[in-house]
Amino acid sequence: MTQNSKLRSSFADAVADIPDGSTIAFGGFAMPGTPFNLIKALMEQGAKRLTLIGNTTGGTQQPRMPDIGMLVENGQVAKVICAFTAATRPTEVLPFTKYYDSGEVDAELVPQGTLAERLRAAGAGIPAFYTPTAVGTELAEGRETRVINGREYLLEYALPVDYAFIRARTADTVGNLRFHRSQRNFGPIMATAARVTIAEIDDPIVAAGSIDPDDVHTSGIYVHRLVQVPPEPEGLWPTKRQARGQEIKQ
Amino acid sequence: MTQNSKLRSSFADAVADIPDGSTIAFGGFAMPGTPFNLIKALMEQGAKRLTLIGNTTGGTQQPRMPDIGMLVENGQVAKVICAFTAATRPTEVLPFTKYYDSGEVDAELVPQGTLAERLRAAGAGIPAFYTPTAVGTELAEGRETRVINGREYLLEYALPVDYAFIRARTADTVGNLRFHRSQRNFGPIMATAARVTIAEIDDPIVAAGSIDPDDVHTSGIYVHRLVQVPPEPEGLWPTKRQARGQEIKQ
Amino acid sequence: MSGTKGLNRQQMADRVAREFQDGWIVNLGVGIPTMCSNTDIGGTDITYHSENGVIGYGAVAAEGHEDLNLVNAGGQNVTLKPGAAVVHHADSFGVIRGGHIDATVMGAYQVSMTGDFANWKLKGQKGGGIGGAMDLAACAKRVFIILEHVTRDGSSRLVTACDLPVTARGVVTLVATHYGLFEPTKTGFHLREIAPGLTVDEIRAVTGGTLTVADGLKQIAVSG
Amino acid sequence: MSGTKGLNRQQMADRVAREFQDGWIVNLGVGIPTMCSNTDIGGTDITYHSENGVIGYGAVAAEGHEDLNLVNAGGQNVTLKPGAAVVHHADSFGVIRGGHIDATVMGAYQVSMTGDFANWKLKGQKGGGIGGAMDLAACAKRVFIILEHVTRDGSSRLVTACDLPVTARGVVTLVATHYGLFEPTKTGFHLREIAPGLTVDEIRAVTGGTLTVADGLKQIAVSG
């Protein structure tokens, strides 16, 4: 297993080569697993015409942490693919929504389970699959369905990405990852769907062999670049203050 | 989470209610993960006209451990679904093969990855999917294919089962499982595909909460019956003698 | 009379939670449905699943004891019950889509008498907020809906046909409103239990389709 | 002259293993392909994957030090290299089918000049032994085949078209036999390197289609 060459000394270095027009998936569900530092680095790096994939574009909480919505505001985004283009509560208006409403940015709204399965399918070499989700809804209009054993299903296609940005608790030098609790969410599947996976890591990176092979959540074969998150304020952490200051609505 | 009610005092008890005509999946790849004790109990229980699913029907090694082939010899099997109806080496003849050749038992030969994915699909609510595997081969003759992004894929259907028999290293009282090394193989996916999963467990069953939630390989929501494997000779273990005495060819 | 008469939010959640059976795996949506986990349902052992892959979460964490990497679907910092397990997002929706969720409880804008419901998009809105709702709606064994019986302008949310974009069709098992507990039938709603202080006629006046009433109609038991 | 002239089994495996590049993920089939892991290829860092979900296995375990729950695809008790990981079978074939395997090495009965090969079923056999071969063949980035150049009765296993049921079509990157190293082209086989003691004419006589020969044909380097 390729040692050490996966370590990057900075977030800027880890995202430096990302070209305009890339498709990038961001892990995270609410705060856990969100690669705040990599998003921030991408804003500074400035790649444009990006297609971004995530569960949401970011919420309305304050103080705001880096999210897809900020990349949109930064003029870097052509399209987002996510499970929310609006908040769950109709009274809440996401920062992203006005860019979508004005047509400045395109969006593809995908049920969360379908989004997850399309990413998993991309990583696992399944080009398309059928799902019962969204049958009979507006999302299925004009699309191909198929009746299997008497039930109607919708055809969905794999969603491969160029880059995955994810956050994990622990990594070894060959890129094996462990996530803590609900930090896991989209991380493992986005890693398999990406040509290049970049992971920001909470804890100091450990030697290969330090993680029991039975306890690896994501194999290092799927992880190409690792950046250790430095202490605050240089590194962005979801501090208790920040967590308390928000009402996250997925 | 439902406590304790999942524990069974014997293998006989755990398989007592399995009716004739059931579809049963057996974990295991070579020796690791094979539920030897449950297979033995099923031979004694005597259910008939079974459809059995496993990677192989069992090899030619001696001394022989309980395998699908023995259930076939016992007259309990109508059909097997597996990745091998013959050995890899043409000179080797599996005990199962003569029953298949004579037409006494039917077989569906499935590429191993397709078998795994069909089981995973059944557990995950995907009724059908496309795969590049087996395109252009005899297995694809007369079957539906589809060109996606210029490549041809074969349509495959989910493979749900009534029962899964699996073997794991550790279980807690709510049925969360951990597997040791390559014992894992088909266990986790067969558990999701089954209406009822029965697991034989190497180590003493531990209290709920003893396994860190991040380290659970198969959630207890997929595991319905647990039997602790007793010491030899009552319980069947892959002893070193048995392991040495064989040449396993998958 | 929206929300002021009949059950309060917790009481609606309580009534739905009393449908849960021992051993069930349950997914609770954001908002009132989350309150189902507050209900004391005796020795009943329920496993709560959330979309982000937490199987077996417990109460909201006490202040100062939060694990910031552990949230439920609503983003609340929760605790874990003994025997909990964490899986990734594809496996988590495998639990849902694979039919392993015994019941999901969700909010909605509208429910139709044929069991359709709408909860992801308002009229005239571009896009919306789907999240895991369509997967849960299409795949859970039972779909329980909690919603206000009428809109702010007094029209019924229990309708003959949804005029908002639906989340799924023909899936709703049971509906709890401030006014009662209802089953969608093909021709209307069947009132199974009525909230204290309401009359059948009051309810009929604000319910789409035909309202049928259970023999020996019971009042919803309310605590607190 | 089957097997007696030219390379021995380990030498064929060695030649194929020398194609492996640093950082590759490689899956080795049962039999001769397994011997590729014995080859010393300098500082090259290869991750060996086996179908049963072991990513990063190492040498066969020493007698008395076997973990009976740890086997490779051939059922041998192997060891793990530092940084290894174990996944379940669906995830393991996700590695394969997802195109994450840089090279697979397999045995075969026949290889065609168009890159088809056959290794799962004999003529007239009912059923066969597929295992993971069809997944690997269809999905690995490179398919390396090691086989005897001729059958016991002297006919070529490098053929214009397979007459045995194929495992996959048009996928073979490179073929190693006792006699040399070949690339399937559309019209025949291209001899890239020749085994010591063989002549091009000898090989041409037992090779299907047109045999083309590399400029400045090199002899395969052999150790041991």
Number of separate strands of chain A = 12
Helix content of chain C: 10-25%
Gap between N and C termini of chain C: 21 Å
Order of helix and strand elements from N to C terminus of chain A: HEHEHEHEHEEEEEEHEEH
Total count of helical runs of at least 4 residues of chain C? 4
Radius of gyration of chain C: 17 Å
Uncertain regions spanning at least 5 consecutive residues of chain A = 240-250
Oligomer: heterotetramer
Helix fraction bin of chain A? 10-25%
Outline the low-pLDDT stretches of chain C.
Answer: none
Spell the H/E element sequence of chain C. HEEEEHEEEHEEEEEHE
Secondary-structure-based class of chain C equals alpha/beta
Spatially, the strands of the biggest sheet of chain A line up as: 4-3-2-1-8-11-12
Q: How confident overall, as mean pLDDT of chain C?
A: 95
Spatial shape of chain C: globular
| Main sheet attributes: strand count, strand direction, barrel closure of chain C | 10 strands, mixed
Q: Largest interface, and how many residues on either side?
A: A-C, 59 and 49 residues
Question: If you average the pLDDT of chain A, what whole number results?
Answer: 92
Biggest sheet features of chain A: 7 strands, parallel
What is shown here, in short?
The complex is a heterotetramer, with two copies of chain A (250 residues) and two copies of chain C (224 residues). By secondary structure, chain A is of the alpha/beta class.
Describe this structure in words.
The complex is a heterotetramer, with two copies of chain A (250 residues) and two copies of chain C (224 residues). Chain A contains seven helices and twelve strands. Helices cover 20% and strands 23% of the residues of chain A. In chain A, the strands form three sheets. In chain A, strands 4-3-2-1-8-11-12 form a seven-stranded parallel beta sheet, with helices on both faces. Chain A has a three-stranded antiparallel beta sheet with strand order 5-7-6. The longest helix of chain A is centred in the middle third of the chain and has 13 residues, at 112-124. The radius of gyration of chain A is 18 Å and the shape is globular. Chain C has 224 residues and is of the alpha/beta class. Chain C contains four helices and 13 strands. In chain C, the strands form two sheets. In chain C, strands 4-3-2-1-5-8-10-11-12-13 form a ten-stranded mixed beta sheet. Chain C starts with 8 loop residues before the first helix and ends in a 5-residue tail after the last strand. The mean pLDDT of chain C is 95. At the A-C interface, helix 4, helix 5 and helix 6 of A face helix 2 and helix 3 of C.
